[in-house]
Amino acid sequence: MAPDPDVSRCPVLDMTARDPHRQNVELRSAGPAVRVELPGGIIAWSVTRSSVIRALTGDPRISRDPRRHWPGLASVPEGWPMGPIAFQQNFFNLYGGEHRSARRRMAPSFAPRRVSALRPGIEKTTAALVGAFRTLGPGEAVDLRHALSRPLTMTVICDLFGVPADMRPPIGTAMDTLLTTTATNEQMTRSRAEINVVLTELLALKRRDPGPDLASDVAAVDTGDGTGRSEEESRDILFLMLGAGYETAVNLITSAVQALLAHPRHLAEVRAGTLGWEAVVEETLRYESPAMHLPLRYPLEDVDLGEGVVIRRGEPILLGFGAAGRDPEVHPERPDDFDPTRPDKEHLAFGYGPHFCLGAPLARLETEVALEGLFGAYPDSALDPSRPTPPRLESAIINGPAELWVVPTPALAAGV
Q1: For 107-184, where are the alpha helices, taking DSSP H only?
Q2: Do you know which PANTHER family this protein is assigned to (predicted)?
Q3: Sorting pLDDT into bands at 50, 70 and 90, what band is 7?
């Protein structure tokens, strides 16, 4: 076995995500896992190869429970930027049988048949949002992320959970901050406290006045008597489901529109009927996964990955699910090109193994409906030529453009 690398010379994972794909290439070429420095001086193993990610996610020796299996947890500073995801107390971070039991209770709510029944409501919301673009004159642009992707996905997930209208803006604002890995520890601590207040109020409301919604289902589980779950666990379940249901889809929709408008020949193929929306969605998931790195996992014993790399028991692991879609071992031909016609669109955008994302069917449906609605109403949509390439979200966890200015009716198309 090779000696442990000098941790003082570890590459620093770029929390600004200015060029995540370039960094993923560098990390992937360095070995099956490579030590990286995270905020706060935390050292973790970065895994960006698809085959290694698959192996680790299916390995029963790998846990997601930091409280049981991360010896270094006590040294993590309060407000750590990756903490809101890494330290959730819900089935996202449970291990083994506890995870399977908790996941089974939530899985029926996101079953494909139940999700498909949401299509009429998603279509109605999409039509209303896209319809608002009629107020724009020829050549005028709109930020599609904030005018379509964000309000659509927030409406869908909050309707599903029965979140009152006045609680939705603070939830969205806090979620955005908690997934921004350039935020300060103080900003993270404040945003976590703010969203906890809103989620506590939501649980209290659903206990007083339950309805046919998923927040009422979560609130109905007894807490505090030693047999149910704690109030913190109930809040964290809502945090996970609302956050995952919102952030994943908003980034997927925005990235899909950006990719299509940057590659208009594929949009022409959709219009001609030779390419379907499903293929566009799957290629977007491969090409620009809405999640990039998910923290963290912890081995219960030493794990030998070969090539002289051994991850010791309790050393944190950061899996680059967004990197897997561009792994040249999986996609040897043009892995960095957006091509919905490619026959193999294999990706790990929704994870892999026991923790595969429950919300995958919903995110796929929302994106298909959004694309149909936008390009059905405005087939000549184009990227705003007066603006530079959109900046990326400043997050090593989620991935996508922070804004996307689109011209629904170009002046030439309008005959001006």
Answers
A1: 112-116, 119-131, 144, 150-161, 168-178
A2: CYTOCHROME P450 YJIB-RELATED (PTHR46696:SF1), P450, PUTATIVE (EUROFUNG)-RELATED (PTHR46696)
A3: low
Please report the DSSP string for 166-203 in residue order: GGHHHHHHHHHHHT-TTS-HHHHHHHHHHHHHHHHHHH
CB 118 within 8 A of CB 156: yes
Q: Could you please report the per-residue DSSP string of 305-318?
A: EETTEEEPTT--EE
Parse the chain into domains and list their residue ranges. Answer: 7-407
- Predicted confidence (pLDDT) per residue in 342-382, tens digit: 999 999 999 999 889 999 999 999 999 999 999 999 999 99
Classify each residue of 126-155 as buried b or exposed e, where b means 16 or more C-beta atoms within 10 Å of its C-beta: beebbeebeebeebebbbbbebbbbbbbbb
- Contact indicator for 311, 35 with CB cutoff of 8 Å: no
Contacts with 199 (C-beta within 8 Å, 6 or more apart), sequence order: 171, 235, 238, 239
What CATH topology corresponds to 7-407?
Answer: Cytochrome p450 (1.10.630)
**Could you tell me if 316 and 297 are in contact, meaning their C-beta atoms sit under 8 angstroms apart?**
yes
Q: What is the pTM of this model?
A: 0.94
- Section 325-338 average pLDDT: 98
Of the candidates 326, 245, 322, 317, the one whose C-alpha atom is nearest the C-alpha of residue 291 is: 322
- In Å, how far are 87, 189, 247, 323 from 192, measured between CA atoms? 12, 5, 16, 28
Beta bridge partners of 306: 309
Pairing of strands 294-299, 317-319: antiparallel
